[in-house]
Each structure stands twice: as C-alpha cells, then as structure tokens.
Amino acid sequence: MHEPVDMYKHLKGYKTLASEFCQTQQLLRINLQIGSFQYAVRRRGITQLRDTSSMRLIPTRYTHKVSVLVNTVPHLSSIDWYTYLARPRLPGPSTHALNSIADRSIFITGAGGSIGSLLSLRIARLKPRRLTLLDISEQALYRLRISLEAENLTDQVTLLLGSVADHLLLREAFSCSSPDILFHAAAHKHLPLIEEYALAAIANNTLATNMLLCAAAEYKISRTILLSTDKAVSPTSILGATKSVAEMDTLCHRGIVVRLVNVLGTEGSVVPAFLKQIENHQPITITDPKATRYFLTSEEAVDLLLTASIESAPATTLVPAIRSPQSILDMAHFLLTQLASPCASTIRYVGLGVGEKRHENLWSEDEEVLAESLHGSLQVVARQRPIYALDRINTMLEPLRIAVASRNLPEAMDHMQSLVPGYTPSETILRQIRIHAGVAS
User: By CB neighbour count within 10 A (0-12 exposed, 13-18 middle, 19+ buried), where does 274 fall?
Assistant: First the structure.
C-alpha cells in the first residue's frame, strides 16, 4: 500500500476532501476542493504536485472540484532492463569513434523516429562539424527540434522536412551538407500494418533506399549505414523481405548493414503495449508462450550504430554480439515484478500475427559470423549474399520499380520473391492479389 500524499504540503493549504489508493489500476486518486479559487491558482497547485511527485497528472474538471489521477506506473527510463536481459550493457563506442564523429558532417534519415531521434541527440552532443536531420513527419521533426533546443544543441544542425523518396530533395540536401557519414533510419516498420500495404512498404523500404544509395554514390558519401532488422533474416513478412533487398542493395553500394533487434521501449514495441495493459488492468496479450526475441536497450542500439559508422569495413553486415534471445512471457512477468502490482494481471495468448515468427535469428543458415567481435559489441556476418555491380543491382530493381509505380501488386510480389529466395507472401497479401485478379477470396 502506498502512503497517502501530503496534499497540504504539495498544494499549500488546499483542502483535501479524500484520498484513496486504487489498487486495481495502480492509481492514486486525489479529490481537491477548489471552490472559488481562480483558474491560475488551481493550475499552479496542480503543477506543484506534478513537479514534486514525479508522477503524471490527469486532471478532470468539475464545477466545484477537480479529480487528479496520479499514475504510479514507472517510466520506461526507471526500469532496470539489464536485470531482465541477464547480461551487462554491451561495450560503447571507442574514444576514437566518438572523436571521429565530431570531425564529420553527418546526415540522418528518419531522424524523428524512436531510434533516429536518440541517434540525432547523441550525435548532436558530440558537436559534429555539421548535422542534417531528415524526416517526413512534421510532428516528429518538431519534437526533435524541441529536444535539441532544450539542450542548446541547434548549432550546425539543419532540420529537413521531406521524404527519402524525393530525389531532387536528396540531391539538394547532399549538395549543401556534403555528408561524410549517412545513417539511413527511415523505414516503414510496423509489421502487421504494412502487411496490408505491401506496395507502400516496397516503395519506402526498398526503392527509396535504392534512390538514397544512388544519390550517396553520386555525391561520394564515404560511409552509409543502413539500420536493418533481424526480420530480414529468412523473412516471413513484407517488412523483412523489403529490408532483405535493402541489405543486398546497401552491400552492393559498399555500405554497412547493422541488423538491429527489438529495441526496448521504442514506439510500437512490445514494452509500451505491456505497460499500458498493466496500467489499465487489462490482460497482457502475448502471441505464443514460447515466443522469444533478441533485445537491445535504446542506448545500446545507438552505441552500435556509432561504432559501426567508424570501426566497420565497407560492404559489411553486422549483428549485435548477443548470445541468446529472451522469452516474451518472462518479460511480462518481469514488468509485473518491476511494478510491484498488488493485483495479478492475467496473460492471454492471441496466436502469432500475420508475418510473425515464434523465434527470430540474427543470421540465416547460409550465413555465419566471425568468432572475433568488433569492439566487443558487434559480430561480423561472413558468407553474405552475392555483392553485384551497381548497374546490375539497379537493373534487377527496375522491374520492381515499374510494378510499384503502376500499382501492380501481383507483379511486384513476383519480383520480390525472385529477389528474396524462400520468401512467401502472407495470406493477407495473397488475398489482395486475388482481389486484384478479380477472384473472390
């Protein structure tokens, strides 16, 4: 049981009508008598409570009183993830790598996303010669700008609102910023959603990546780093398939592929979903009791990208130096323990979703990793897929580009399957192909 909040201390004399702990929702409900107090005074009192309690306030106004719900579910940053991961944090980038970043002009696509924004802030703190941040989301770019301004990190930083599929924008941006290092984080990543929008996934994850790589080659950007995913290994989803082709294309352009895994706490990941379910006293939904995933913390993901950008050889695929995956079911129990919830939440198994696997892998059966790691945090994948000449890879992608431009899903998927041997489209995509052909599902 939580101790009652001393409302007289926090609100300087506001009369407390009632205070009760809501065990079922991990919330502290405080009813305040506000009577004829002016609005500004009421707001000042609520602000004091927020600032002194490190809890999120949700005010609900009534004519003569306000009910404030104080959320006691901890913030993601307060959770000790390494206890769950049962391993120490992976080694960070070397001093050499960090000093090298400071001397360069850096360009980041998808800069407003979960990983992109963390990478942008980390690099901005290193005071690079120039930092250019591109994102297609106005809101994401605005939030990033606010974060940069809060730390006085806007010197030598340029924010660009636009798409990696805009060839003229890329040429203009590269001409102005002359990047030395390009991080490509922009992608459609929400697996269940983009199964319904395969053409959009191909256009953004595969074809726009090719356009970016060609522009980077034209402007002689020395190092390009693709943020890929373990879902590109023996893919069962359009996300994995499009990233697999992007990996091949990046290697053909002498770029560096970093296969990230599930990053704890990022937007769209399992952790925020679990926390919301626990907060709302809903069943925790898990696909399969035996499902496992590889996990990184957000700090580790940024560390790996910085290390790869400086320490890796060109045309290399890198994976995190992680020994074993973690149980999703264990994560649910871990979060319940972290919350010290007095109410036992139930767990509901919902089955694997479209394109999902029970287990992910860091490399395929046709690949292997070298025994020696890169700076103790990354492993180098050997026996990679063939690296083609640039004119050949561009020729291979041209029929796919035509199919996507003409909105021809059946042809686009035929080309994807030829580019990614072993990939079979999901039933969601096959149903759309049948509709396209005029055949009833």
Answer: buried
- Give the residue numbers marked as catalytic: 231
In degrees and rounded to multiples of 5, residue 87 shows phi and psi of -160, 160
Chain segment 383-408, per-residue pLDDT in tens:
777 889 999 999 999 999 999 999 99
Domains in the chain (CATH in brackets) are 7-72 (3.30.1360), 81-382 (3.40.50.720)
For the question of whether the overall pTM of this predicted structure is more than 0.85, the answer is no
AA identity, residue 212: L
198: exposed, middle or buried (Cβ count in 10 Å: 0-12, 13-18, 19+): buried
Sole residue written with tokens 């990696």: 164
HSE of 110, CA atoms in CB hemisphere, 13 A: 22
Alpha-carbon distance 213 to 246, whole Å?
Answer: 10
Supply φ then ψ for residue 409, to 5 degrees: -65, -45
Q: Looking at the DSSP assignment, which residues form a beta bridge with residue 296?
A: 263
Q: Please report the DSSP string for 378-408 in residue order.
A: EEEEESPSP---HHHHHHHHHHHHHHHHTT-
Tens digits of residue pLDDT in 262-292? 999 888 788 888 888 888 888 999 999 999 9
Report the C-alpha gap between 400 and 395 in whole angstroms: 10
